[in-house]
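re: that complex we talked abt at group meeting.

here r the seqs, copy pasted straight from the sheet so there may be weird spacing, ignore it
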Amino acid sequence: MRELALHVLDIAENSVKANAKLVTIEIEVRDNLLTITITDDGKGMSEEFLQKVTDPFTTTRTTRKVGMGIPLFKQAAETSGGTFSIKSKLGVGTEVKVTFKVDDVDRMPLGDVAETATTLLYPQCDFKWIYTVGDESFIFDTREVKEELQGIPIDSPEIIAFLKSMIKENIESINGGLVI
Amino acid sequence: MKSIADIKAIREKMQAQIISRDNEDSANETRVVVGMATCGIAAGARPVFNALVDQVANRGLKGVKVTRTGCIGMCKLEPIVEVFVPGKEKVTYVHVDAEKAIKILDQHVLGGKVCTEYLVGDEA
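got the structure back, here u go
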């Protein structure tokens, strides 16, 4: 992966596949620490599966025996002075939390968060994004968007295009010229 | 700065169009499917998906649906785009980028001519 935002997309797709109704994605930059937390209310994992989920040869797929998403995210964090943790409870949900040192030369750039957010628009699953830099936050909640849409699908091309420019503007304003 | 409140205007415009669209047969819809598992995302599927959605939105194309799928087992050929034209056989494009995706949209989806240069060649 070339951007942390791509890892976020990949991990959040797991939440959608786990039948989550709500996925909360928090991205926070404070001092020299970048924290990304992805929490879902999907079906969760058993203690036994959780123990081996960071192993690239663990997957729920039956067609193949590899599952690279979580191991790659863990590696991205740990090879650049960061940390990775995953918690999960069967029937309750899963939380993936990753931290990075902002100034580590090996850290991947955060990348295009707006494009990841608009790639994650599903009629059956909602997303709440909380994007924070220092003391300023931008919150994007697809439940609010759906209410405003009154039945028009949130993944219509016209809506996706609008939301992408809206999120981009808000994030750029919060970043205040800072490239993360 | 744009906000969720701006959706109202887009919604009203779209509601008028949706009434006429409902009368069309959805079986006549061409589906453009982008592989978006870990392998696809790592190889660059997100910009491909977004380029296609942008084009469909900006040009107001009807009868074209951009959607996604998981890993179809040819990870080294990602990003993969499959085109399903009703009544025709599925066409699979490999190593697609945003530029190629737009060409596929123009030439194949809209023009009906398969872009043979992006098909699975000898490399499979």
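couple things i noticed - Chain A has six helices and six strands. The beta strands of chain A are 22-30, 33-40, 83-89, 93-101, 126-133, 136-141.
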